[in-house]
Amino acid sequence: MPPDDAPGKNAREIPIKVLRYRSEIDREPVLQTYRVPFTDDMSVLQGLQYIKDHLDGTLSFRWSCRMAICGSCGMMIAGEPKLACMTVLRDFYPGPLTIEPLAHFPIERDLVITVGGFVKKIESIYPYLIPKTRRRLDEGEYLQTPLQLARYESFSDCINCMLCYAACPQFAENPDFIGPGAMALLQRYNGDSRDGAQNKRMELVHTDNGAWSCTAVGYCSEVCPKLVDPANAVNQNKTRSALDYFLRFLVRRADASAGSSGGAA
Amino acid sequence: MKRSPAPIFWLLFGAGGMLAALIGPALLVITGIAAPFAIGISPGFMSFERVAAVAHHPLGKLVLFGIITLFFWHGAERVYLTLRDMHVGGKVALMQLCYGGAAALTMVTVLALVAIGFH
Amino acid sequence: MSRGRPYVRPVEPYWWAHPPYLAYTLREVTGVAVAGYALILLAGLIALARGEAHYVAWLNFLKSPWSLVLHIVLLAGLIAHVWTWFRIMPKTMPRLSLGGSIMPQTLISAAGLVLAAVTFITILLLAEWVRP
Questions:
Q1: Where are the domains of chain C?
Q2: Distance in angstroms (rounded) separating the CA atoms of residues A180 and A130
Q3: Which of A245, A246, A249 is most worth mutating to test chain B (most B CB atoms within 10 A of its CB)?
Q4: What is the CA radius of gyration of chain C?
Q5: pLDDT tens by residue, B45-87
Q6: What architecture (CATH level 2) is domain B8-116?
Q7: Contact at CB, A208 and B8, closer than 8 angstroms
Q8: Which residue in A116, A159, A183, B23 could disulfide with A234, CB within 3.0 to 4.6 Å?
Q9: Mean pLDDT value of segment B10-22
Q10: Domain map of chain B by residue range?
Q11: Residue A188 — φ and ψ, nearest 5°?
Q12: Is the ipTM, as predicted for this complex, more than 0.85?
């Protein structure tokens, strides 16, 4: 990485329009344009960092790893939900490039959105393994074949970047929809052969805010930077929930959740 | 936690959609294009006698009922969700319109099949 | 640190009409073609119940140019339904295995489309072989 992060004299320039919002001075968000010199290797994130370092220190945005694994820098880039670190400025030349905060979330400040609701959702789905049968330490590990792993592996790749929520029009209409990211995490556990708490999680799936807010638009899986395929997580649970709706009276299931007294139907 | 009633309509939508995908185009080509214009199909294919014979038979009634009503329930779910996307009306009003409409058309189908008789 | 006023952006009311959602809306509209064709069949059933004269009138409608145009439009809708149906179908299925690894979704879609093509041809052939 070169020590001077400002592009040289011969760099091209792209106008970047950023949706600003500072609650102490703005009644509503407003676009502000910056002229950003860039080289072909620069990401949109580096463009934003150039603005903050050289043009306007008040610009606020989240970022961390700059290599598409932390999930911090999700934003609307030319109208599409993308990770800023994984998108390059040269693709939008000559511009202007419009950058807005991630869609369908309240704006805290500039490109920073409120994530609390999403965090509560992923906390609500029992995001931990509850084994079917407990094994003592001397019994060794919970074993799993590569195929059993493959059945849920993509769902474990989620980096909680929330691009899928920005893509989902049903989440835009209903913020209480548990949403693609939380459902992917839910299916990561329900699809894990070692887990025995499927029924606990299915209670959330069966509701109007569970799988049934989804209309299979599929855009969530298209925008996912880690190929998690949240659309599959949600929609395979529609099938599961629908079959359960009618078959639940035939089969009484044993729930593996420790400490549960059986609960309501 | 309250279960959604959506599975009822989703399964009907799914059954209708699968049936429509597998037999819809062929059925439409036969009844709407090939038979009326006698293209590759004998002219009397959909004559009153032949179709009435099918509709009189209990199995024929079941098949006709299945195809027609499942196609309606498939369309009803899609129209309901699309009208909701378009904010054409409230959720309850749209459910009454779409599912109520499909239910009404189901009743009409039953009445027509009964009126056709069994002999 | 003071808590600001988070700004909630209003939902775009015509989101369903713009890319990337327009394709999804068009897919859903194919359901109208399915229901529309069923209405034609129901009309025939009602005509049948009312007697031969009404049924012949329905048959005569089927022979009209308007009916042909209508059926061609509905057929286009049905074919679009078949295509989009099997494209989305794998999303509703759990991950299946095929020879030790996960079955690709494209394979499931292709299998469905092949099945639809087979049933299409089979039904047409069956109809062609029926003699009065």
A1: 15-129
A2: 22
A3: A245
A4: 23
A5: 999 999 999 999 999 999 999 999 999 999 999 999 999 999 9
A6: Up-down Bundle (1.20)
A7: no
A8: A183
A9: 98
A10: 8-116
A11: -60, -35
A12: yes
